[in-house]
């Protein structure tokens, strides 16, 4: 899911559907924290292909999904049209192309929700701008107004990132700088939220070992293609082979199953 495209990452919706569906299916805990209510207006920030937005709309909440990726939005619009046929009235959602760091909304939403998107926003300043926009978007007259999100946290996919950094160094590619992901500690993100005018109700790092049924190569080609695309086809194949060889003793179990070392940062914040 892509909230802001200042990274090298690009999205292939077919690859994402095949290799990244766990992003939506493993979101039950953060959805429970959001506790969407029928009739609530909710902004889904970084909605991606709309799979989770559609689930939220089925609760009776009224969803607006935003994303920066045209390919993801096209997939989400297909869901939106389909959903409008099946869920008339309150069970609806629409999608819009927006940059997370320049949200145009003012006092419009009862809740802002984000899953697996905020870590694609680059740097402290990008997050400060995003949080300011989220704060403006929430209805100040609603005592239940809230921002609930889950993103990559400190230590997220650390083994994968370390292996990529080592493998791509001979090609003079800084994998971390190119990916430009932002995986903050709870203390740092609490400070950012509070500085933006939020009261943090809860925030925590949650280790979440994540099975990769299609293997590590599929994950790398889906979630680090922006980095790997900097290589020619021959070098890319070699880099993938070397990265997988480094990771196999750590992230592949005795039965051959790959498990990625995900760590999530989940929080619930309200207007101060």
TrEMBL record:
SUPFAM superfamilies: S-adenosyl-L-methionine-dependent methyltransferases. Keywords: Methyltransferase, S-adenosyl-L-methionine, Transferase. InterPro entries: Methyltransf_25, rRNA_Ade_methylase_Trfase_N, SAM-dependent_MTases_sf. SMART domains: rADc. Residues 26-163 form the Ribosomal RNA adenine methylase transferase N-terminal domain. One of its GO terms (molecular function) is rRNA (adenine-N6,N6-)-dimethyltransferase activity. Gene3D superfamilies: Vaccinia Virus protein VP39 (3.40.50.150). It comes from the Bacteria. PANTHER family: TRANS-ACONITATE 2-METHYLTRANSFERASE, TRANS-ACONITATE 2-METHYLTRANSFERASE-RELATED. This is Trans-aconitate methyltransferase. It comes from Tunturiibacter empetritectus. The lineage of its organism: Bacteria, Pseudomonadati, Acidobacteriota, Terriglobia, Terriglobales.
């Amino acid at each position: 899911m892509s909230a802001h495209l200042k990274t090298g990452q690009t999205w292939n919706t077919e690859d994402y559907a095949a290799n990244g569906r766990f992003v939506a299916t493993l979101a039950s805990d953060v959805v429970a924290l959001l506790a969407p209510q029928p009739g609530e207006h909710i902004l889904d920030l970084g909605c991606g292909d709309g799979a989770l937005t559609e689930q939220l709309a089925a609760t009776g909440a009224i969803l607006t999904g935003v994303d920066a990726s045209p390919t993801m939005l096209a997939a989400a619009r297909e869901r939106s049209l389909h959903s409008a046929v099946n869920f008339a009235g309150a069970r609806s959602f629409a999608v819009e192309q927006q940059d997370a760091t320049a949200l145009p909304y003012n006092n419009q939403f009862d809740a802002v929700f984000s899953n697996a998107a905020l870590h694609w926003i680059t740097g402290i300043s990008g997050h400060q701008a995003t949080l300011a926009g989220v704060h403006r978007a929430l209805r100040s007259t609603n005592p239940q107004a809230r921002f609930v999100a889950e993103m990559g946290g400190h230590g997220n996919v650390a083994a994968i990132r370390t292996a990529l950094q080592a493998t791509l160094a001979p090609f003079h590619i800084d994998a971390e700088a190119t990916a430009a992901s932002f995986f903050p500690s709870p203390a740092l993100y609490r400070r950012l939220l509070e500085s933006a005018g939020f009261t943090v109700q809860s925030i925590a790092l949650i280790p979440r070992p994540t099975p990769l049924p299609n293997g590590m190569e599929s994950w790398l080609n889906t979630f680090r293609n922006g980095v790997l695309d900097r290589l020619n086809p021959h070098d890319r194949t070699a880099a993938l082979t070397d990265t997988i060889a480094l990771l196999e003793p750590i992230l592949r179990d005795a039965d051959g199953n790959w498990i990625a070392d995900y760590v999530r940062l989940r929080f619930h914040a309200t207007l101060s």
